[in-house]
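Handoff note, outgoing to incoming analyst
You'll be picking up this chain. Sequence as last confirmed:
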Amino acid sequence: MYDTEERKLLSALCHGSVFFSTSFVSVVLPLAILFIINDSVVKSNAKEAINFHLNVWFYGVMITALIWVTLGLLFPLAWLGFLLHWGLTIWALFYVLTKAEKSFRYPFIFRLL
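Most recent structure output, in case you need it:
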């Protein structure tokens, strides 16, 4: 049996690290948790957070390229990306803090892990 509070904390750390995704070092936290912790729910949350990091970076590059190509005409697209990034992260945090027995799955992302 796993400690529910520890599971909540580690899962929240994995998903919360996405708030610092522009630093590119933020993915180290869920990676470390993935390799150190033996709890299957926490491991699943760590994998999902890593996948979300990769998606945020990929879509960030795509949106930035579109803004540059259109000379800023698609700048509102950046706000949409920003809202989705933060909104989905807040949703994940709320989910893992209220339902510790299940891992969170982000909708609409590509999963490499």
